[in-house]
Amino acid sequence: MTSPGSPFVRLVVLNWNSGDLLARCLDSLAGLDWPPDRLETVVVDNASTDGSVVDLQRHRPEVRLLCNDRNTGFGANNLAMADLDGVDLVGLVNPDVVVDGGWLAALAAVMGADAGLGAACPRILLGDGTGPRMIQNAGSELSADGNSRDRGYLEPDGERYDTPVDVDAWCGAAVLLRADYLRHVGLFEERLFLYYEDTDLSWRGSNRGWRYRYVPDAECWHLHGASTGLTGDLARYYQARNRLLVATRNAPVRDVLRAWLRAVGGTVAALRPRRMGLSATGRLRAVGGALRQLPWAITTRRSVRAPIPRDARGG
User: Fold this and answer.
1) Predicted confidence band of residue 192 (pLDDT cuts 50, 70, 90)
2) Do the beta carbons of residue 65 and residue 136 sit within 8 Å?
3) Which of 7, 18, 32, 239 is 20 to 30 Å from 285 at the Cα level?
4) Nearest CA to 153 among 139, 166, 163?
5) pLDDT above 80 (res 80)
6) How far apart, in whole angstroms, are the C-alpha atoms of residue 139 and residue 151?
7) pLDDT tens column, 6-31
8) pTM of the predicted model as reported, rounded to 2 decimal places
9) In the chain, what are the domain boundaries?
10) CA distances from 15 to 11, 21, 77, 293 (A)
11) What fold is seen in the domain 9-229?
């Protein structure tokens, strides 16, 4: 158990028809090595219809429940972060994630040792903990054109991922965030709905001087994609659309132009027969969706890139 005076942590789990996955996730959070009086677990429900909310209310009275009246996507996490009075750290955990008992203590120790860190990223392994150790995310990497990539994705876990390192961005499936970072930078952009919200918030933070570190001693397992309910072209549509919007909001101008040229070029190339991946129709839809949101992305660009002084973060 951690020592007295531990930071107060709010753990946030976003639920949408997650069923037994939610119960499994909450069981793992209940087993964390952290003082119960310094820990709060909040489930934000995105208008589920599978009975998971009824089960939660019946069997887990210690968990605070916030119910959304409709599914607003990943940005619904904001409902649990709008008021951070008295909160030092915020842990985001997908319902398809199971954490080890020392997950929180390892992340919090790194955050406590470096006030410049906005987030600490765990070793996220693919699966349910019963199979081979394969990396899903060891921190995230950003390319110049706005593409976000899971560092180590599908690679066997090994010595390469045993060393703590600073990373470009963090993955929202399982992460510990500093409350002061959220006060300074803001919360998720709900307009994106799904995918790249974490990239957007990571990028906004790094543009204002925050850093992120991968912490290999904090481990969790992730049934990747099980909680979103989106597969195929619809998932790829949001990924392709939001990649352009997030780059437009956050990247240097030359990289924004590169991102759009790449997207248009990929759409033209997809018109050729026997192309793999997202279809030409899907690419056209994604680029069209990004174009419709382009005025918003350009209008908000100045504010999200503004170098607000770090002393404005509060805390």
Assistant:
1) very high
2) no
3) 18
4) 139
5) yes
6) 6
7) 999 999 999 999 999 999 999 999 99
8) 0.93
9) 9-229, 232-311
10) 13, 9, 10, 27
11) Spore Coat Polysaccharide Biosynthesis Protein SpsA; Chain A (3.90.550)
